[in-house]
Design goal:
The chain is α/β, with parallel strands linked by helices. It contains 14 helices and 21 strands. It has two domains: 137 residues, Rossmann fold (3-Layer(aba) Sandwich), CATH 3.40.50; 299 residues, L-fucose Isomerase, Chain A, domain 2. A hairpin with a 5-residue loop joins strand 16 and strand 17.
Length: 481
């Protein structure tokens, strides 16, 4: 899959009359940020000349736009001339206003650096308010923990923004029948994030590709599958295993040929009708490959999975929230068997037949299709989803419990639950999900990504859903102010 690198532009503003060494400070900052770009894996473009005038600000803006930076950092080495921000604030990238601590605590004021951030931020907010320009503040030297924490969160959030701008999603087969809650307008998706979507692909198209995969390639792939997990040969029909391999190879090559970073597959029920197989295991393998592949052709979840993959650099999964256990305040995340293999606990992945798609032949259950049966490994987890208009974002975090057995398929119990950083019990969680009209598909990723998702929401204009405390009476969805 494509590697996305965030490109940062640095400019420095100085005051003609401040006694501190602001130009020297800016040179040191540029050198430190260049070193940081190596360890934090971002590209840096530096506008070397200190900014003193409005025309300098315009020149810096042109430099940033020409270099197609994703973030313009304006370092206030000293108190700048306010009008420099009038052209520079309209740069095509995100904006960060950066200041540092004063070198002395008494005597003659040397830099007045923070006042520069304060002033320029208020000019953007007030004088340029009609432009609705978003910006983030930074404070401290590049090696300081406080600066690094804010900067790293920004890098990850802007990486997700950039990923969506260049992402290509292929929807195969159309939204699953009966999942009308996941209906959306693709024009809204393109306008909001710049994401490309193609909805014209059919399941039949993939089935024909699957049938055409050479037998030798299928045989080799089944061997690869056996190395990735245990094949449950006692229950799994050879024909189903072969068809699963064919579908995986067909979808993988289809994604590569079309440069798709995500495939939203109508796994149920179109594949059973067209090929007599559930394709859960094939989707699990695509997710393991880094191709975000949600169930039921859910494009909204595909978008969320791409965001999570960009934020943590790992591989996300799709789940339903299916059960509550009040004995330990945990919930169960589950789906038929599409989680990537890297999610599995020490038992590993078991390639098994589908447990509820198929038929009984006498006393024997004959599943149609292969699932990636696994329990989730322990660790922190973030669960998230957006609404169909791509303007509300739900964030739930917790810890996957170690050793607590889940359901057949891909499953895990999650405790220590928080909604957007606020602890939540079962009643308030249920209440929030239903009152806020949250969709039933949840993308999930390892790690606590609350900060990163909040920043992503701030840059893209999403509303982060807050906890709705439980009440015994009916509640309506809160109105936006």
């Amino acid at each position: 899959m494509k590697t996305t690198i965030v490109r940062v532009g640095l400019a420095g503003a100085v005051h003609p009359n401040m006694p501190g060494d602001d130009t020297g400070l800016y040179s040191r900052i540029a050198a430190s940020l260049e070193a940081l770009s190596q360890s934090e894996d971002f590209e840096l473009r530096v506008f070397r000349d200190p900014i003193r005038s409005e025309s300098d600000g315009a020149a810096a803006r042109s430099f940033m736009d020409l270099n197609q930076v994703d973030l313009t950092l304006l370092f206030n080495a000293s108190l700048p001339f306010g009008r420099i921000i009038l052209p520079l604030a309209r740069v095509k990238s995100a904006i960060g206003l950066w200041s540092v601590q004063e070198p002395t605590s008494s005597g003659v004021l040397q830099l007045n650096s923070f006042c520069g951030t304060n002033m320029l931020g208020s000019i953007i907010a007030n004088y340029l308010r009609e432009h609705d320009i978003r910006f983030k503040w930074f404070y401290g030297m590049p090696e300081e923990a406080a600066f690094l924490e804010r900067f790293r969160i920004t890098l990850r959030a802007l990486k997700a923004v950039k990923v969506l701008k260049t992402a290509r999603i292929g929807q195969i087969g159309g939204l699953a029948n009966g999942f009308e809650n996941l209906y959306f307008d693709e024009r809204v998706l393109e306008k909001k994030f710049g994401t490309y979507l193609q909805t014209r692909h059919t399941v039949e198209e993939i089935v024909e590709r699957a049938k055409a995969v050479p037998d030798a390639a299928v045989k080799d792939d089944v061997e690869v599958l056996g190395k990735a997990g245990k094949i449950e040969t006692g229950r799994l029909a050879a024909e189903q295993l072969e068809r699963s391999s064919r579908v995986y190879l067909a979808l993988r090559d289809f994604a590569r040929e079309n440069d798709y970073s995500s495939l939203a597959v109508s796994c149920w029920s179109r594949f059973q009708e067209a090929y007599g197989i559930a394709v859960c295991a094939a989707m699990s393998r695509l997710n393991e490959d880094g191709i975000a592949t949600p169930c039921e052709a859910d494009v909204v979840s595909a978008v969320t999975m791409l965001i999570l993959n960009a934020l943590n650099g790992q591989k996300s999964s799709l789940n339903d929230l299916v059960a509550f256990d009040r004995s330990d305040d945990s919930i169960n995340l589950w789906h038929c068997g599409v989680a990537p293999a890297c999610w599995s606990d020490e038992r590993g992945v078991v390639w098994d037949n589908h447990f509820n798609i198929g038929e009984h032949q006498g006393c024997t259950w004959c599943g149609k299709g292969v699932v990636a049966d696994m329990g989730f490994k322990k660790g922190p987890i973030t669960v998230s989803c957006m609404n169909n208009d791509f303007d509300d974002l739900f964030i739930l975090t917790g810890e996957i419990l170690d050793g607590k057995k889940g359901y057949a398929g891909s499953s895990g119990w999650v405790g220590k639950l928080e909604i957007d950083g606020s602890p939540v019990g079962h009643d308030a969680l249920m209440n929030t999900l239903v009152v806020q009209r949250v969709n039933h598909h949840y993308a999930a990723a390892f790690g606590n990504l609350t900060n990163e998702l909040n920043e992503f929401a701030a840059w893209t204009g999403l509303n982060v859903i807050g906890k709705v405390p439980y009440k015994p009476y009916m509640q309506n969805k809160p109105r936006r102010l």
